[in-house]
């Protein structure tokens, strides 16, 4: 039976949400092609993650075990996955465009000499029984539908583009160990140190609500005051447009957009952001956009569900106050 | 011995061009800007960051050469020459009808890797983290795989020391310091500072330089070598349903309050 392979990630011994989303993307495609769906989990204490993956749609788990995989290391991950792919010969490989996925995706494709579709938001089986993927390009202005001309088809899928499948605790699946037989010489780069630059509050990528600020805020102060009050009231993370980052109002880690973070919150409230395609490329997966902008012709009103045309300095305090009363 | 840096630079349609100016051939996976709009192409933003990074490294190392390399079919020389007038030493253009609409990274990476080997010895290959047209972020990683050298994606700082590149690479929660043996491929983001403006002296020097051009035959690449790994079967501008409800109010404070009520009604909060 042909199979679709999902590259799994583990978060605190549980299956990462992004991997559960990949299963949701891959399952219907596997079913329409008569294929099974497997998850590769790299050297973790995997019993719970493996079970977790099975209840969320996986038919088979490959536990890739090697001492060199104790923590994430690009070269070791690449060598292991390449070996697994060559051995099981899947029809497709799905990877989530997380920090790890973005790091290994393209290199893995080149290593096994196949094509990869980057930053997909949707995959499906077409009339020729080929897997095709839709991906935004040209700063999110266009969507390209792409197929692979080689095997396996590989897709790097944007996180939060699909809800995980309903949990089915009655499902059963097979769990097998895979030994990648790694040699220390595969590791070329040394990670000297990892530094966390602490950003207060919720991580943008994980946030279900985001408040974003742009050039229209006219300075850095609102990020610590009005915008922060609003975000705290809503339980939201704070993001920014490239314009605000380039001027130096907030660090790069706040940047949402083509050249920053890709987010997909349930609610994205944008203040003083015009909605240039550069920015929209990073938040097109938002379920609801609310915009406050003094320019009635701002592009953002084409994407927003609710809009206020006005001066944020007057709108925000009243909005925050009212929200405090409602929540 | 001189330290050899190769920088990859791509000519792209201006990312500020409005989508209304796009002319799309969906089946061919091809997008151009309407020529009547007179919107000139530009060097991809992250590629300018890469050129800036290369020039900073050249200044730090001292005896170094910066060679810029690009693949395509339709170069606008005034645009590409900016790479030289910023201060790069030489430019190699891989130009052939067969290199038009390079949207398959496996082909682009193969072209560039072949040319890099043809140029000769290299210590460092620097590229932008992604291009603003196809947004794939793959070509430099592919080149590293083809050449069998290490790769450090998304660096924001590079220091050359004892035959290694010590890089700070941006991560979701901060950065990590990675030490890679040379030669290696490094991609950069926009944290190297503003790409420098060409000086008059460099503009004059660039005007006297002629880029070296190679076509597929000169690179020794057959049609078979250029067979695609991916294919774009459709390309389109997604329809937006513009149904923004503008919140009314006596004054802006009331609009703010009404917005809160509206968001609650719609169960957004």
What keyword list fits this structure?
heterodimer, A: 327 residues, alpha/beta, 5-stranded parallel β-sheet, B: 269 residues, 9-stranded mixed β-sheet, two-stranded antiparallel sheet, globular
Compute the number of strand runs of chain A: 18
On the 0 to 100 scale, the average pLDDT of chain B is 94
Can you write the helix and strand succession of chain A as a string? EEEHEHEHEHEEEEEEEEHHEHEHEHEH
Number of helices of chain B: 6
Main sheet strand line-up of chain B: 11-10-9-12-8-1-6-7-13
Percent helix range of chain A: 25-40%
How far apart lie the N and C ends of chain B? 64 Å
Per DSSP E runs of 2 or more residues, the count of β-strands of chain B stands at 15
Shape of chain B: globular
Low-confidence stretches of chain B: none
| Average pLDDT taken over every residue of chain A | 93
Oligomer designation: heterodimer
* Secondary structure: helix percent of chain B: 25-40%
Q: Which structural class is indicated by helix and strand composition of chain B?
A: alpha/beta
Strand content of chain A: 25-35%
Order of helices and strands of chain B: EEEEEHEHEHEHEEEEHEEEH
How far is the N terminus from the C terminus of chain A? 52 Å
What gyration radius of chain A follows from the Cα positions, in whole Å?
22 Å
What topology, given as strand order, has the largest sheet of chain A? 7-11-6-1-4-5-12
Shape of chain A: elongated
The gist of it:
The complex is a heterodimer of chains A (327) and B (269). Chain A has 327 residues and is α/β, with parallel strands linked by helices. Chain A is 29% helix and 28% strand.
Characterization of the model:
- The complex is a heterodimer of chains A (327) and B (269).
- With 327 residues, chain A is α/β, with parallel strands linked by helices.
- Chain A is 29% helix and 28% strand.
- Chain B has 269 residues and is of the alpha/beta class.
- Chain B contains six helices and 15 strands.
- Chain B has helices at 45-61, 77-85, 105-119, 139-147, 200-208, 252-265, and strands at 3-8, 11-12, 22-25, 30-33, 42-43, 64-72, 90-95, 124-128, 151-161, 164-171, 174-181, 184-188, 212-214, 230-236, 245-246.
- In chain B, helix 2 packs across helix 5 and helix 3 (105-119) crosses helix 4 (139-147).
- The radius of gyration of chain B is 22 Å and the shape is globular.
- Classes of the chains: A alpha/beta (327), B alpha/beta (269).
- Chains A and B meet through helix 4, strand 7, strand 9, strand 10 and strand 13 of A and helix 3, helix 4, strand 9, strand 10 and strand 11 of B.
- Strand 10 (142-148) of chain A pairs antiparallel with strand 14 of chain B, so a sheet runs across the interface.
